[in-house]
Amino acid sequence: MSAILFREALLVDGTADEPRDGVDVLVVDGRIAAIGEPRIAPSDLPDLPELRVVELAGLTLMPGLIDAHAHPSAAEVQEDPARPMPTSLRAQYARIELEAMLRRGFTTVRDAGGCDAGLRTAIERGLIDGPRLLVCGKALSQTGGHGDDRAVGETDPWPGAYPGEFARIADGVEGVRLAARQELRRGADQIKICASGGVMSETDPVRMVQYSEAEMTAIVEEAASRGTYVLAHAYGADAIARAVRCGVRSIEHANLIDAEAAAEVAAHDAFVVPTMVAYEALGAFGAASGVDPRRLAKNTEVLEAGLQAFAILRAAGVRVGFGSDLLGEHRHMQAREFAIRAEVERAADIVRSATSVNADLIRRPDLGRIVAGATADLIVVDGDPLADVAVLARPAETLRMVVTAGRVRVDTLPA
Fold it and tell me: Considering the entire predicted model, what is its pTM?
């Protein structure tokens, strides 16, 4: 029976606005067994021959971070469909990125298109030293949609063809049903659809509404039949409102949302996952990474609107998650999302977005919070994220320990 006793931590529990100081947390067999304020007395400890005691005076204990919109398998910023990367090579890039994510404090990552069940299994078997991974498989895109990576002059593919790294084309109610069923059969934990135009797709305007209500509803039905849900890439208000009316649980990006669409999201009890760092990275480094001017112009449009969307979402009472959406060599900037959001958001709201809110989004209420009975996904950081959330933006300087399901994965504390 493995056990860890964290002593005298500054506790950030993933839900409260303020930390609690001098708190003991006992982890037994992968779960939080007890929380002691101010201490857990030795006489209250069960017989634990393998108990490790970790003294945390002056350090913060908090839930492991959750990134609800990541692309671990996106090895290049701008893919070249004419020169597809071999799957075996892409898997190695994914392995490196997943292991880096864990060392930034992210203990759970939701793939938003591109990762398959093999990567998830490799983590579960210890072949990749990465975080818990929820895979999407291939995102679903209509012809000419955000996931259709063909250039203007290319010919039409056969039905169900895979034009790019992260998506597949599917059209019509029966076509999208089949595509959703195939991705679920291949092990997808959730289904991703492209419900609007995008930045990194060549032929669609960002504000374009994609997929009909009938198509979206069919995909949602197929996901629900397997006990899961749909997340939708969507920028514009019309696309967002259509998606949540059709039962989509999670709206990704939402930079161009308005008050009316935000009210629709709240009324349907859906979530929004902003991804501001992706636009900053493309704006700063996209040209050097080979991104063409048309895509960079679309990026400028959504970048300028993105920070303004937070006030609209909060005013409507929308549950706001946390994502990064970075590609290729930009992915090392993942933790910078915390610093960007600090320009417009309260620290406590940002911390909740990356912990308990994202846990509820992915339907894992045992994650993202430090309460008795929860899964012991925990990190130790130097500094108080509720006073300065940018502490989490500098993991190389501040991260001291990472624990997943009670197992220590990263440990830089003094022996």
Answer: 0.96
